[in-house]
Amino acid sequence: MSKYDVVVIGSGPAGYHAAIRAAQLGFSTACIEGDLNKGGKPAFGGTCLNVGCIPSKALLDTSFKYHEAKDGFAVHGINAKDVSIDVPAMIKRKDDVVAQLTGGIGGLFKANGVTAIEGYGKLLAGKKVEVTKADGAVETLEATHVILAAGSKPVEIPPTPLDQNLIVDSTGALEFTAVPKRLGVIGAGVIGLELGSVWSRLGSEVVVLEAMPEFLPMVDKQIGKEAAKIFKKQGLDIRLGCKVTGSSQTKTKVKVTYNDGEKDVEEAFDKLIVAVGRKPRTAGLLADDCGVSADERGFIPVNDLCETGVAGVYAVGDIVRGPMLAHKGMEEGVMVAERIAGKKPTVNYDLVPSVIYTHPEVAWVGKSEEQLKADGVPYEVGVFPFIASGRALAANDAGGMVKMIAHATTDRILGCQIIGANAADLMQEVAIAMEFGGSAEDIGMIMFGHPSLSEGVKEAALALGGHAIHIPNRKKRK
């Protein structure tokens, strides 16, 4: 029986970060991965690199470049006639990007001394791990510490059973070989909007069915309202309060029935994407006598340090509480590895950035105005629209705004929400300031390069105190 200081089950963002950091700290480390890629090799990187974050961004970038060439070049005086999209070539490029990055993780494992093991891991009693390989062979590892990082998978719903042909999940939506003439998307969350945007830009008529009555309820209402307006203008048909009740198929079409709150409606699509969320992949992960169990939703209970109820066993990433975000899992994986080494890092769960990679992007960190109002916290708001940004206008990309919120008394930044070009990168500036307890005045006093989109962050900070230069101020200057 092989023995390691640390055994990590799962090589997604949380798992591979934990494994690499543990090996860097001098621990003998093994990382187990059961999923196989298209080449039949371990799919290092998990959902994010193989069928999630990275491939979807590759398609988002390609589709946006096509959209710009077809519909956005003329305003710059560029004539691009007969622009077309080669969907199989686009899919191949996406696969090439994935292969390069997943291969890179294998290289990082070798460089850091991590032993990569192919197979599905299962936690046994006494911190032993059973590994079942693709050919059915079974081996058992012994560990001083075990880190569970099994990840998540798409949620399926009974009214629309998946066949990965006409009715697909987020994975299947990355493999279309042609542009659907009419595309249905169930779920107006992050995944649904991103995938809907890809195929809408390429020419699909996209209808998004969302059961919730409110659009993007997790986002600041002002930003969500702006996003809805922009996405509608782009051609996304987003229908709220629509509960899907059933579906049927022919050889080439899928019919979806739903209730819109008043009546039953039937719609026909060439393809249907089910994007209603994700759930933990904990089925088969835990032996009955291992001492660790999942709750009724499949999540493994942990404390703020990702410790389970068994000493030396940790759980990180999508299988524990908190948002199912790659970067959140990455930080948890590193934290656990360092705590095993006796260090004392923590993860600041109050500052987990969130991003929707549509165009414009939607990004936020900290509290929204609605959350602060509900909590009774006194606050001030500063907003700067990108239409007032010289850099945004020059780029013909002036949709959206920066919204910054600070404590009314202390001026400490409590939250930032941005919709606009490069919103994810701009928002991160504010996250850094918030991590160090920065105030809106601090940001307002920093010199920003001109012209740049980042000036919008400075102007929003200045607007909090009525000092914005490039827009009229709503409050009296002090």
Could you explain how this protein is built, in words?
By secondary structure, the protein is α/β, with parallel strands linked by helices. The chain has 3 domains: 2-154 and 279-350, FAD/NAD(P)-binding domain (3-Layer(bba) Sandwich), CATH 3.50.50; 167-276, FAD/NAD(P)-binding domain; 360-464, Enolase-like, domain 1 (2-Layer Sandwich). The chain has helices at residues 13-24, 46-51, 53-72, 87-112, 190-201, 221-234, 326-340, 369-375, 390-394, 423-435, 440-445, 455-464; strands at 2-9, 29-33, 114-118, 120-123, 128-132, 138-148, 152-154, 167-168, 182-186, 205-209, 237-239, 243-249, 254-259, 264-269, 271-274, 278-280, 313-315, 354-356, 361-366, 379-385, 401-407, 413-420. Strands 1, 2, 3, 4, 5, 6 and 17 form a 7-stranded mixed sheet that branches. It has a 5-stranded parallel sheet with strand order 8-15-9-10-11. It has a 5-stranded antiparallel sheet with strand order 18-19-22-21-20, with helices on both faces. The longest helix has 26 residues, at 87-112. The mean pLDDT is 97.
List the helices and strands and how they pair.
Layout: E1 2-9, H1 13-24, E2 29-33, H2 46-51, H3 53-72, H4 87-112, E3 114-118, E4 120-123, E5 128-132, E6 138-148, E7 152-154, E8 167-168, E9 182-186, H5 190-201, E10 205-209, H6 221-234, E11 237-239, E12 243-249, E13 254-259, E14 264-269, E15 271-274, E16 278-280, E17 313-315, H7 326-340, E18 354-356, E19 361-366, H8 369-375, E20 379-385, H9 390-394, E21 401-407, E22 413-420, H10 423-435, H11 440-445, H12 455-464
Parallel strand pairs: 1-2, 1-6, 2-3, 6-17, 8-15, 9-10, 9-15, 10-11
Antiparallel strand pairs: 4-5, 5-6, 7-16, 12-13, 13-14, 18-19, 19-22, 20-21, 21-22
